[in-house]
Specification:
globular, mainly alpha, 213 residues, 11 helices, Serine Threonine Protein Phosphatase 5, Tetratricopeptide repeat
Length: 213
């Protein structure tokens, strides 16, 4: 009997919490909860469109544009046709610039997305584009880290870059390990400002660290 009462009380508390969320918060949370699994499911384009629809209603909020940009640049990463990558990355640029404008101040999280966009442009032709887009990607990451040294996402991007860079150029699996370890440590202690604030990357960190076991 006591267990039944406790379960009912827990359910009432949970339901009350959901009822207190606005439609905006409910829609955002529903899509944010899918971010860390989107590379497995391949639904990044669907999520990008979902966030854009939210942004079309909540025109003064920066986070829907931020997440739409993030999902769009992940789509650029996944695109196998190099002839299409630039156009997708340009769409991500428009979205992140809108987020940047609405936020109205420097942001580590926004610079992370700008670095990803530069990287996606570079991936079209790394030998010829590294000196431009590669440098841009590196500068945005450095700025993101300086703006928030507790943010695990700039370190995660550095780790992934190291992991996929050939050993003869200072990269490789072994060179990336310390960065993944640092990203993992930061992630375990990171406290997002709100329930809707950026907090993605945990599944990627765990995936790469599993490669060392």
């Amino acid at each position: 009997m006591k267990k039944s009462i406790a379960w009912i009380l827990a359910l009432m508390i949970s339901t009350a919490g959901l009822a207190q969320q606005t439609p905006y918060e409910q829609a955002m949370k529903s899509n944010i909860d899918q971010l860390d699994s989107m590379m497995v499911k391949g639904n990044f384009l669907e999520l990008a469109h979902n966030f854009e629809r939210i942004a079309s209603v909540e025109k003064t909020r920066w986070l829907p544009y931020y997440y739409a940009a993030y999902c769009t640049v992940v789509n650029a990463y996944a695109e196998k046709d190099n002839d299409k990558k630039d156009a997708i990355a340009n769409q991500a640029t428009q979205l992140i610039l809108k987020a940047d404008s609405l936020l109205g101040k420097e942001s580590s999280e926004i610079d992370v997305i700008k670095s990803m966009i530069a990287t996606s442009h570079m991936m079209v032709d790394p030998p010829s584009r590294y000196m431009t887009y590669g440098q841009d990607a590196s500068e945005y990451i450095q700025k993101a880290e300086s703006l928030d040294s507790t943010n695990p996402r700039p370190v995660l991007l550095q780790a992934e870059s190291k992991f996929y860079t050939p050993e003869q150029f200072g990269g490789g699996k072994d060179a990336a390990k310390e960065y993944f370890d640092r990203a993992d440590s930061l992630d375990r202690n990171f406290k997002p400002e709100t329930d809707l604030s950026p907090n993605w990357g945990r599944s990627s960190i765990r995936y790469f660290l599993s490669q060392y076991k």
